[in-house]
UniProtKB/TrEMBL annotation:
Residues 42-181, 214-359 form the SIS domain. The keyword Cytoplasm applies. The gene is glmS. Homodimer. This is Glutamine--fructose-6-phosphate aminotransferase [isomerizing]. The active site is at K364 (for fru-6p isomerization activity). Keywords: Aminotransferase, Cytoplasm, Glutamine amidotransferase, Repeat, Transferase. It catalyses: D-fructose 6-phosphate + L-glutamine = D-glucosamine 6-phosphate + L-glutamate. It is found in: Cytoplasm. The chain holds residues 247 to 615 of 615 of the full protein. It comes from Streptomyces fuscus. One of its GO terms (molecular function) is glutamine-fructose-6-phosphate transaminase (isomerizing) activity.
Length: 369
């Protein structure tokens, strides 16, 4: 049932191109418009939304952090993202015009469930993004957009994460479409890019051997840091989470701009630091800033592991290890940039003799608060 792979996690990583494509399937009509009929919240209501609040835990929370960039960029509706376990206990400000999005692979995470119940009590509409048909979170929500990742067996989430991203992009574009904040042409262009992304994920998967070799070489390290900016920041958090749960290593993700406010003190000789580099096209200021961050940490002895777009030559002099990812639109980059980090964590876990599919102390669905 592992389809020839040693672990479910490897199988699920490999299934990501299909999972991404399946999550798009049937949601775009012949004219290129989105048809999210399953989102049973009326267009009139969606036009009234004045705030989006995303609640989730763990990896799903990281998908939410990325969704914020897309939602605010494409719809201009303010969007907050909060850990479900924190949300309910701080008396959040919600009303009938707030759209709450609960993201959960299993649909059974207790913290996320309690957060959505609280939101509904305040009169907010709740849209679930979920991978498990008929589970509790979609049943208790006003509407659900299913991710079509197929069953995810490995405890560490991989393909579900990529499909959560796709679902978030779809919701963001749909909100833009319904509210007329985005022109049909632009939505169509993003949809076209999304449709191609599955092939790009496939290409990333074909080039992972050097990443595996690199990971094996780091098996005796204690700490790995991850840096990113913009949507690369949540990707860095996700890379660190994967490494903690699978390799049982100390791993932390930082916003690269925060380095000088503290974390740079952690840099010491030969410390591996993974840097997710934004595209040099588009937001080139961000790109240039992160290149100087890489220079700074390398000058202090860090071993730099740089994830950068094909053709980005500016990073080459400062990369001890260079992992190439395909050219993608800035907001969609997490779909390709996360994949090497999953492979990296999985290989490090194996090299350290850990149980990949069933890491110690963890459960696939966390049904206690
Ligand atoms: C990490 C991981 C967890 C889950 C979290 C939420 O790899 O799998 O962090 O993402 O427990 O689970 P769901 O999405 O089922 O609500």
């Amino acid at each position: 049932e592992k389809g020839g792979y040693d672990y479910f996690m490897l199988k699920e990583i490999a299934e990501q191109p299909k999972a991404v494509a399946d999550t798009l399937l049937g949601r775009i009509d012949a004219s290129g418009a989105l048809t999210l009929d399953e989102v049973r919240i009326s267009a009139a209501e969606l036009r009234e939304v004045d705030k989006v609040v995303i609640v989730a835990c763990g990896t799903a929370f990281h998908a939410g952090l990325i969704a914020k960039y897309a939602i605010e960029h494409w719809t201009r509706i303010p969007c907050e993202v909060e850990l479900a376990s924190e949300f309910r206990y701080r008396d959040p400000i919600l009303d009938a015009r707030s759209l709450v999005i609960a993201i959960s692979q299993s649909g059974e995470t207790m913290d996320t469930l309690m957060a959505l119940r609280h939101a509904r009590e305040q009169g907010s509409r709740v849209l679930a993004i979920c991978n498990t048909n008929g589970s509790t979170i979609p049943r208790e929500s006003d509407a659900v957009l299913y991710t079509h990742a197929g069953p995810e067996v490995a405890v560490a989430s991989t393909k579900a994460f990529l499909t959560q991203l796709v679902a978030c992009y779809l919701v963001a574009l749909y909100l833009g479409q319904v509210r007329g904040t985005k022109w049909a042409d632009e939505i169509r262009a993003v949809i076209r890019d999304l449709a191609e992304i599955s092939g790009e994920v496939e290409r990333v998967l074909e080039t992972m051997e050097p990443v595996r070799a690199l990971a094996r070489g780091l098996a005796d390290k204690n700490t790995v840091l991850f840096l990113g900016r913009h949507v690369g920041y949540p990707v860095a958090l996700e890379g660190a989470l994967k490494l903690k749960e699978l390799a049982y290593m100390h791993a932390e993700g930082f916003a690269a701009g925060e380095l000088k406010h503290g974390p740079i003190a952690l840099i010491e000789d030969d410390l591996p630091v993974v840097v997710v580099v934004p595209s040099p096209r588009g937001r080139s200021v961000l790109h240039d800033k992160i290149v100087s961050n890489i220079q700074e940490i390398r000058a202090r002895g860090a071993r730099t592991i740089v994830i950068a777009e094909e053709g980005d030559e500016a990073v080459v002099p400062y990369a001890d290890h260079l992992i190439r990812i395909p050219v993608t639109p800035t907001l969609l980059q997490p779909l390709v940039a996360t994949v090497p980090l999953q492979v990296f964590a999985c290989e490090l876990a194996t090299a350290r003799g850990n149980e990949v599919d069933q890491p110690r102390n963890l459960a696939k669905s966390v049904t206690v608060e």
